[in-house]
Model the fold of this input.
Amino acid sequence: MTKLIFEKHGKGKNKFRVPDFGVKDNDVIPDKFKNSSVDLPDVNEVDVVRHYTNLSSLNFGVDRAMYPLGSCTMKHNPRINEKISSLMQFSALHPMCGDTLSQGALQVIHELSVYLSAITGMSAFSLAPAAGSHGELTGVMIIKKYFEEIGEKRDKIIIPDSAHGTNPASVAMCGFKILEAPSNQEGDVDLDKLSGMIDGSVAAMMLTSPNTLGLFDRNILKISEMLHANGSVFYADGANLNAVIGTARMKDMGFDIMHINLHKTFSTPHGGGGPGSGPVGVVEKFVKYLPVPFVREEGGKYALDYNRPDSIGRVHSFYGNFLVALKSYAYIRTLGPEGIRDISRISVLNANYLRSRLMKEFNLPINRTCMHEFVLNDKDIPNHVTTNDLAKRLLDYGYHAPTVYFPLLIPGAMMIEPTETEGKDSLDEFVDAMIKIKKEASDNPEIILGAPHTTPVRRVDAVAAARNPILKWQE
Ligand SMILES: *Cc1c(COP(=O)(O)O)cnc(C)c1O
Done:
C-alpha cells in the first residue's frame, strides 16, 4: 500500500536552506497570527517527486487504456486543445475586465454558439450552464417560464424509464411532477402508453436521443407530433450527441430545447467532478428566455447583454466555464465539418463492431443495430458470475469497467461505449479480454470472484464505503 506523504515525514529531512541575502528581517505579520504548529510534512525533494509521480500512476485514465464507460464518452482529448485553453491571453483574462478588453473571449463564445446552432439546428445557444445537469435545469426553467407567460397551468413532465438520473432530478427541482414513460421490448418509447399519458397537464417530455440503451428511437417524429399537437415542449438531453453529430440534427427530430455536454462530445477530459459545460440551445420561440448575460454581436463587436426582460435570469456567476468552451471551439475548428461528421460515423461503427463480436459470447437483451453504445448483460456467464465480478476482473486486464447496472430496465446491464478515438486493434484486444474472462468463469470462477488482484486497492466493500466513508488521514 502506498504511504501517505505524512507518513514519510521526518523532522529535518528537507535540507533546503534559504540563502542569507543580507536583508533585514521585516516581518510584518503580528506574532499572534503566527502558528508554529501547521504540521506540514518534512520530506526531501526526491521523495516528494517520487511520491506524486507514483500517486499519479495509481489512477486510471484514458491515457492508459480503453475506458468503455457507457454514457460518459471517455474519449481521447487532443492535447492541442489543452494548450490553447491555457494560453495566457485567455486563462489570465479577468471576468471583470469589461466587454472592450474581452473581445476575443466574447468572440469565441459567440462563434461557438453559432457552430452549435449549425450542428443541432437550434436558433441560439447559451454557454452559461456548467454541466449537463445544469443545462437540463436551465432548460426546464425556460419551460416553466414559458407556460407562466402564456398563462397555462401545466405541472407534469414525461421522462422515459431509460433516462439518466439527472433528468428526473432537474424536473423535480423546478417543481414539476414526473410521469415515467415505459419502453417497449425493442427499447423504443411505448407509443400506446405514451399517448395515454399526454393531456393538458403535460408541460414537456424530456428524451435522450439516442437513448441510454444506445438506440435511436424509431418513432421520434411521431412522438414530437404527439407532443406539439398537445401544446407541450419537446426537450432533448443531448449528452449522446456523439452518435448523431454531423449526421442528424435535433431540430429536425422535432426538439424545441436541448443541452449538449461539451465535456463529452467536444474534447474536455472529464470525471472526478469537472469542470464541464452544458450549453442549452432553443428554437426561435424560446430565445428570449435564455439566461443573462447573453453574448450579442453587432457589426463585428461583441457585448454581454443583460437587458433581456423575458430572460429566466442568471444561472452562473460571470459567464459559464469559459476555458471548457474554448477547448470545444478549438476542437471544432480543427476538425471542420467533415471531421465532425466522422465523429458520429466512427463512434457508431466502433460500437457496432464491438457489439457484433461480443454478442457471440454474451447476452444482448435488445438485438438491434446500435448507435455509439450498447448494453449486454450477465445472463450467459457461467457459474453465477455477475456483471460486478466481470467488471472487477476487467481491471486486472488493464481496462476501466463499462457502466454497470444502468440503465435499470436491463437486469445486470453492462453498457459499453468505445468512442470514435479507439482503433481496431484496441477494440479487438478488449474483445479478447472479455472472452478470456468468460472462459475463466467456467474454468476457474474463483479468480474472478476474488478480482481485482493487481490494483492498488482490492475489492472494496461498497456498502461500507458508502455508509461510513473515511475521507481524511487518521493517525
Ligand atoms: C452525463 C449525462 C448527463 C449529465 O451530465 P453532467 O455533465 O454529468 O451533469 C445527463 N444525461 C445523460 C444522458 C448523460 O450521459
About this structure: Residues 88 and 94 are 11 Å apart (CA to CA). Residues 5-58 form one domain. The longest strand covers residues 202-208.
